[in-house]
Amino acid sequence: MKRITPVVRAMEVDISLSPRVNSVKPSKTVAISDQATALVQAGVPVIRLAAGEPDFDTPTVIAEAGMNAIREGYTRYTPNAGTLELRSVICDKLKEENGISYTPDQILVSNGAKQSVLQAVLAVCSPGDEV
Q1: Rounded distance, CA 83 to CA 80, Å?
Q2: Residue 92 has pLDDT above 90, yes or no
Q3: Which end of the chain, N or C, is surrounded by fewer C-beta atoms within 10 Å?
Q4: CA-CA distance, 84 to 103, in Å (whole number)?
Q5: What SS3 state is found at 96?
Q6: GO annotations under biological process (predicted)?
Q7: DSSP 8-state secondary structure symbol assigned to residue 105
Q8: Which of 109, 80, 79, 103 is nearest to 91 (CA)?
């Protein structure tokens, strides 16, 4: 019986990145945060104002609520704008604590200001627009 040896040929694949990738610059807030971390590690007292990272631990009531939500099966993606329940509670908070009125359909929950600001700018600005 003759043994057949498979022939394996290397396949060249041209993976090109979008020119947009080359225009991406490092985040200035991350660079400043890195500098602040280095200063803290060197023993310098620092008040961090560069990024939206809290300077306190997650309050116990919030941590417990998060763990309970996981235990109760709330582990799937939510609607893009946030759940109606959350947006309603945000409306209540804004009314009670800030004296401003919104309806849940006027509220959008996001994972941070950078994402929201970028998406808003991209929605209304085109290449070449003066901002």
Answers
A1: 8
A2: yes
A3: N
A4: 10
A5: helix
A6: amino acid metabolic process
A7: G
A8: 103
pLDDT digits (tens, 9 = 90+) for 104-124: 999 999 988 888 888 899 999
User: Number of C-alpha atoms within 13 angstroms, CB side, residue 15?
Assistant: 2
Phi, psi of 64 (to 5 degrees): -65, -40
DSSP 104: G
Q: Is 98 helix (H, G, I), strand (E, B) or coil?
A: helix
| Tokens standing for residue 65 | 């609520």
User: The tokens of 24 are what?
Assistant: 């991406």
pLDDT value for 57: 92
pLDDT of residue 12: 78
* Residues in CB range of 47: below 8 A, 6 or more apart: none
Q: How far apart are CA 19 and CA 126, in angstroms?
A: 17
Q: Which residues contact 88 (CB under 8 A, 6 or more apart)?
A: 104
